[in-house]
Task: structure prediction
Amino acid sequence: MTTQILMDCDTGTDDALAILYALRHPDLDVVGVTTVFGNTDITQTTRNTLQILELAGRTDIPVASGAEHPLVGQFTQGAAWIHGRNGLGEVDLPPPSSRAVGASASEFLLRQLRAAPGEITLVPTGRLTNIAVLLRQAPECVQLIRRCVLMGGAAVAPGNVAPVAEANIYGDPEAAAVVFGSGMPITMVGLDVTMRAILTEPQIARFAQAGGRVLEVAGKIARFRAQSYMRRDPRIRGCAIHDVLAVEVAADPTIVRTQRWPVNVETRGEHTRGMTVADRRAHTTAQPSADVCVEVDAGRFLERFEERMLMHRQT
Result:
């Protein structure tokens, strides 16, 4: 039985791999993709999303463009060091022939959720701005969402853009606070698990050797990520593929072990803004708000990723 998912992406390198993986996953049905600022600006993330879907031959999947800045303040910069200036690791793809739908991301999400109440899992892999806008405009939609499996946060692991903050949450902590406080079923796929599942250099090399345009592009994108990781820390012989793990958790929750904890997002701290504060005290009286991923079967996940990506070698 397949799970219907709506992806919400700031399409950079790992979002692109996540989209390609979701399209090849036998247990997932991608019913739409919304875009948000983050790894680069909204114009580029939307363009990248359309390009990746066209690369995969899936122009039937609708794309809706969303937020271009956080709920508070402005979007100032992306993450070119790991996503490249174009967000796709400098991989040059043809201009998209398709276009985003006329509706905004929040309008599109609400329309899709109302058409299939209780059936759609949201998989946000970027800033949570679009989801927060949706919740503010139509708070009743919480009852329509099967689950929200989001890539973001760090309960115990160190942050990746600040000492205690992960990039997606840090990029719009006010939006993240709205989402975590909404009452919707949430699975938090954060740095606690994504940094334990490193795509290795030999695996990346096998993509390049497999043949087919999709795998060629996937290999180049993964290679760019790996080189970026190794420039910062030569001990890492590969790269994390954060967003791909969120997609896998949406399909198979048994790939991780979770703890159900109250999670609040820090929006004001001078040194802690963007921190996902998990209340791990045994005696806490706070209500749990998220299933936080704390362990991952990294070997099984990476084996599945490679196997499913290589399944259609000539496409």
Summary: The mean pLDDT is 96. The longest strand covers residues 28-35.
